[in-house]
């Protein structure tokens, strides 16, 4: 092949590395919706990078809809609800009349395999992240809230724990839609008084990961998603206006 077909290899920009780290912290729930991000000066020190690199990374987060800058106040993580409303796939899915069941079927395919890998490959840090997500989820439910964003962070944490870049990429791409499906299903389950069962199922999934039991983790995840699927369908059948 002629040399002119080749292009010089470019090293990843420092700002892109900072962007990826901050984005992953948001996806994992370490940076929560509404939380203020540290000032650029502090981030530059923490990353060992220049302020222009940090500023470029923050701008990229803003353009991605993950954070918002408020005049005189700082930079804040946006809510998942607002991100979902701006997701272009939302309108596409509305046109296709995509249902909660459709989204749950996709999750069944993605997450049962993923949790088996996570049970084999999760680091102690991954497990601490999942424990934090579960703790925050339970705290929200005890306060009478949905805990949807913490639920999403839990499932995203499992994706990161697979150490499979393709799995992580797919779940990142699915992120806002994952929130939509989880939020809608938790509303159905809340109305039916089933959130306590959901809490227990998440705890069982985490326990299987902690004990390095991939088959048990997969069984727990499949049982969890199928339970949600059945509960949502029962609720829809009794309340057609929600379908």
Tell me what you see in this structure:
- By secondary structure, the chain is mainly α.
- It folds into two domains: 14-78, Orthogonal Bundle (Arc Repressor Mutant, subunit A), CATH 1.10.10; 84-242, Four Helix Bundle (Hemerythrin (Met), subunit A) (Up-down Bundle), CATH 1.20.120.530.
- It contains twelve helices and three strands, in the order H-E-H-H-E-E-H-H-H-H-H-H-H-H-H.
- It has a three-stranded antiparallel β-sheet with strand order 1-3-2.
Give a brief description.
The chain is mainly alpha-helical. Helix content is 71%, strand content 4%.
| CATH architecture type of the largest domain | Up-down Bundle
**Strand residues, percent:** under 5%
Query: Looking at CATH, which topology of the largest domain would you report?
Result: Four Helix Bundle (Hemerythrin (Met), subunit A)
Q: How many domains would you count in the coordinates?
A: 2
- The CATH class of the largest domain: Mainly Alpha
First-residue to last-residue Cα separation: 56 Å
Q: Count of helical segments?
A: 12
Task: Give start-end ranges of low-pLDDT stretches.
Answer: none
CATH superfamily of the largest domain: GntR ligand-binding domain-like
Largest sheet: 3 strands, antiparallel
Topology as a string of helices (H) and strands (E): HEHHEEHHHHHHHHH
Number of strands: 3
Rg from alpha-carbon coordinates = 19 Å
Strand arrangement across the biggest beta sheet: 1-3-2
Question: Oligomeric form of this entry?
Answer: single chain
